[in-house]
Specification:
With 145 residues, the protein is an all-alpha fold. The chain has helices at 11-17, 47-60, 73-85, 103-116, 129-140, and strands spanning 21-22, 28-29. This is Peptidoglycan binding domain-containing protein.
Length: 145
């Protein structure tokens, strides 16, 4: 199996594992490979937490999908609309409303989590443990599904 010498991940592992790409900067671009699979990026949320987020964005930011506990492209498009348009957003999202959970989406989410959900880390666009913990707090501050 051919190995990438910089990070030790095989090309086959990248394809089978679903990671779409790693940018030249070394920042992972999150997504699932293959046209038949939808990207699901729950950022550490369990199914119930993701359902709470979906219910919240359903009522306010145009989410029209199922409340299934899988934060896919349409869930993230609604989240990006929220992060771009809510007047109290400390760092408005400025990218395309494309549902891709990249550094711009994460940075805007981190700023929101810092203001409202106890995130204490850097606004760096990387969804580390602190970002995920604050996102869980945000999810569980919303009503149960």
């Amino acid at each position: 199996m051919e190995q990438n010498r910089r990070n030790g991940v095989s090309r086959r592992g990248l394809i089978r594992g679903g990671l779409l790409a790693v940018a030249a900067s070394g920042v992972a671009v999150v997504g699932l490979a293959g046209p038949a699979s939808a990207a699901a990026i729950n950022l550490g949320l369990d199914k119930q937490g993701a359902q709470r987020i979906q219910r919240w964005i359903l009522t306010m930011y145009g989410y029209k999908g199922k409340i299934d506990g899988v934060l896919g492209t349409n869930s993230w498009k609604a989240m990006q609309r929220y992060l771009a348009t809510w007047t109290g957003q400390p760092l408005p999202y400025k990218g395309d409303i494309d549902g891709i959970v990249g550094p711009k989406t994460i940075a805007s989410l981190q700023a929101n989590l810092k203001k409202f959900n106890g995130y204490t880390g850097d606004i760096d666009g990387i969804a580390g443990p602190g970002t995920k913990a604050a996102f869980r707090r945000k999810a569980y501050s919303n009503p149960a599904v």
